[in-house]
Each structure stands twice: as structure tokens, then as C-alpha cells.
Amino acid sequence: MSDYVTGTTTKDVGRPTELTPAEEDILAERCMLTGTWGFPMTTRDLCHLVRDYLNAAGKTTRYR
Questions:
Q1: How many domains does the chain have?
Q2: Domain range spanning residue 46?
Q3: How far apart are CA 32 and CA 54, in angstroms?
Q4: 45-62 pLDDT, tens per residue?
């Protein structure tokens, strides 16, 4: 871990994400948009949105 803190390693810490940064940005925009419509998303709503997106994109995760 000290190598990571000092920047002497290029390994990422933690498990890889399933969504690309662009996909995360799109989903975040959708969440904010529903809030401007007067329907803010709950945590459960967000989980369903991401799950439905992953299903539609044909992506599989080990947590399904």
C-alpha cells in the first residue's frame, strides 16, 4: 500500500468497475434529470436503474 501512496506503482486498488466513466456520467445525468422533474431517485431506484442498464447492455457481474 505504501507504494501506491508514494506513486511508485501503477496498479489500481480495489476491484474493477463494471461501468465505464462515460456510462457512469450518463446514468448520473439521468438521475439528476428525474430530480429536476420533481421525482428524485432513492437508493433503490438507482439500483434498479443500474441493473436495468446492465441487463440492456448485456453486461454480467458477479453480484447478480
A1: 1
A2: 19-64
A3: 19
A4: 999 999 999 999 998 877
Determine, yes or no, domain membership for 31: yes
In a domain, 38, yes or no: yes
Q: Is the C-alpha dihedral spanning 61, 28, 57, 49 positive or negative? A: positive
pTM for the whole structure:
0.65
Which pLDDT tens digit goes with each residue over 28-48?
999 999 999 999 889 999 999
Q: How far is CA 42 from CA 2, 29, 31, in A?
A: 37, 15, 10
- Is residue 2 one of the residues assigned to a domain? no
- Which residue's C-alpha cell is 443500474? 50
Cα–Cα distance for residue pair 31/43, rounded to 1 Å: 11
Q: For residue 46, tell me if it sits in a domain.
A: yes
C-alpha grid cell, residue 17: 468497475
